[in-house]
Amino acid sequence: MTGARSAEIRVSEIFGPTIQGEGVLIGLPTVFVRTGGCDFRCSWCDSLHAVDSRYRDEWRAMSTEEVWREIAKLSGEEPVMVSLSGGNPAIQPLGDLIRRGHGEGYRFALETQGSVARDWFADLDVLVLSPKPPSSGMETDWDAFDACLRMSRDKPRTVLKIVVFDEADYAYAKTAAARYRQLPVYLQPGNHTPPPADDDEASIDIEGLMDRMRWLVGRVTEDKWFGAHVLPQLHVLLWGNKRGV
Amino acid sequence: MTGARSAEIRVSEIFGPTIQGEGVLIGLPTVFVRTGGCDFRCSWCDSLHAVDSRYRDEWRAMSTEEVWREIAKLSGEEPVMVSLSGGNPAIQPLGDLIRRGHGEGYRFALETQGSVARDWFADLDVLVLSPKPPSSGMETDWDAFDACLRMSRDKPRTVLKIVVFDEADYAYAKTAAARYRQLPVYLQPGNHTPPPADDDEASIDIEGLMDRMRWLVGRVTEDKWFGAHVLPQLHVLLWGNKRGV
Ligand code: SF4
Ligand code: SF4
């Protein structure tokens, strides 16, 4: 879908409630709004269907009210945590949606790589900043990242989440954590078998994931990095690469 | 070991740091102090080596200072989260240990079924109250449970953690959560293949665990119980029934 008006939100998928599989809200029932489009192209992106413009025909340009109605319907109108992810949800106009949902008692968490700052970050309940380590093939613009933090004005509960595949990523995570000592850190072992955007049933290397998880736990404890949380992607362990669960 | 003096702590094992595999502190590097002895006998207890008096020869009667030195050594004298579990750690004299550790910047989480209240609960950083559902074969004494909450004087971060095997357990969890609306709830699918106390290598029914986890996620979301967290035992997925990791 092209030609979205500026107030429209490009949506790749809305699904749930199911539990959050990652990071600080792990285990919490959540409705997921995955927006379409991203300013990054991480080598191991696990949401290509929400990133690659080849899939933009599947994205819908929706008004705030349309997105809100879908969230309310999925949750049976019972307030629930809403996860705004992507792609990069920061490139979508989500401020009105957050205000709309807050009025009904819903809460909002946003996950972004920290490349684009928005003033409505301050309205979030949870802000997950997920800078991309070297294995992604991306460069981090720390000035843009700092702007995200500034925009949030210390209002949301803000955490760092970093995917770690190897020693270089781990070193990057340590540097990022040292730069933002005030932020809780969540490390996540990388999945080198991310879902191809067009194959729901593609198999995952669960043993590889678990090995990387055990390695990362060992790395963190050896280093006495006792403030870092290490968590796998629970939904991948439970449901594989299947979408919409 | 018998004849422990009253100020001595009966210890089944001290190990770590490794990540906390369960509940509110999931993923956080932790040193575990598992005390010996329990006033309960849950049918599916996964810590029989710390409960059954057949194993009491393996328990050590240690002074506060001895336990403290072992924690400090394991953590390389770097402040870390310490988990006090058991058995029922509430029947041990742990108040001095908590004060000792706090002096060095360590934090303490205690997990107990809520049958025995101690004034030092108020000194904890995290109190995990884990009432036992019908499948355990135990009865909950809610007066004793209330006393635990009273003793904590709202000082620690306090949560409910409930193991769920079946519908009856689930109903129990809902009732307990309704009784303590102020407490965050963590539901954990039960492991019907807990470690036999004398066989480290005994196999676990991981698929059964995952099935129960998926069922529980479905149950919670169907019911729109959006405040409950559902989390598996991560250490079991990562390391099986092996002890000391
Ligand atoms: S920032 Fe996220 S959504 Fe965008 S390409 Fe990277 S992993 Fe994919
Ligand atoms: S209360 Fe805990 S340690 Fe005691 S028997 Fe039950 S499960 Fe085992």
TrEMBL record, chains A, B:
Its EC number is 4.3.99.3. The keyword Nucleotide-binding does not apply. GO terms for molecular function: lyase activity. S-adenosyl-L-methionine binds at residues 44-46, 87, 130-132. [4Fe-4S] cluster binds at residues 38, 42, 45. Substrate binds at residues 19-21, 34, 85. Coiled coil: none annotated. Keywords: 4Fe-4S, Iron, Iron-sulfur, Lyase, Magnesium, Metal-binding, Queuosine biosynthesis, S-adenosyl-L-methionine. Binds 1 S-adenosyl-L-methionine per subunit. Binds 1 [4Fe-4S] cluster. The cluster is coordinated with 3 cysteines and an exchangeable S-adenosyl-L-methionine. It catalyses: 6-carboxy-5,6,7,8-tetrahydropterin + H(+) = 7-carboxy-7-carbaguanine + NH4(+). Mg(2+) binds at residue 47. Its cofactor is S-adenosyl-L-methionine; [4Fe-4S] cluster; Mg(2+). Pathway: Purine metabolism; 7-cyano-7-deazaguanine biosynthesis. Residues 25-219 form the Radical SAM core domain. Homodimer. Belongs to the radical SAM superfamily. 7-carboxy-7-deazaguanine synthase family. Catalyzes the complex heterocyclic radical-mediated conversion of 6-carboxy-5,6,7,8-tetrahydropterin (CPH4) to 7-carboxy-7-deazaguanine (CDG), a step common to the biosynthetic pathways of all 7-deazapurine-containing compounds. HAMAP family: QueE. This is 7-carboxy-7-deazaguanine synthase.
